Amino acid sequence: xxxxxxxxxxxxYRDARSMIDWLCKGFGFEKQAVYEEDGKIVHAQLxxxxxxLMLSEARSDGNFSRHMVQPDEIAxxxxxxxxxxxxxxxxxxxxxxxxxxxxxxxxSEQDYGGAGYSCADPEGHLWWxxxxxxxxxx
Length: 138
Known about the structure:
The chain is of the alpha/beta class. The chain is built from two helices and eight strands; from the N terminus they run βαββββαβββ. It has a single domain (about 10-60, about 70-135), classed as 2,3-Dihydroxybiphenyl 1,2-Dioxygenase, domain 1 (Roll), CATH 3.10.180. It has helices spanning about 15-25, 90-100, and strands at about 10-15, 30-35, 40-50, 50-55, 80-85, 100-110, 115-120, 125-130.
């Protein structure tokens, strides 16, 4: 077994190719693998530290697709949010803001330790970034 995360969020984007570039620039992800068929991204793996995000083009065919919607189809709401631990939360916040992330909850220091903020990427997916590491305890 590798040392990476055992829980990997998977998102769908209408313009997956552009979002891969944006997620790398705006959030600091790195491309690990990108697979295409007929000019569409069918699977991509982006890493951040020991974590990973998988993504593909949003589509309506296939069994799994009937369980998925895009945020703009449900008034910009989400039922899940990827939480990413970052070393320098303030610097990450500034990078995401400069790249055009929609800041939903501004950067703030937390009573339980660390700092964090939440934002939406250009296609409306909700993200939380923070320096609090629950693996290290309170």
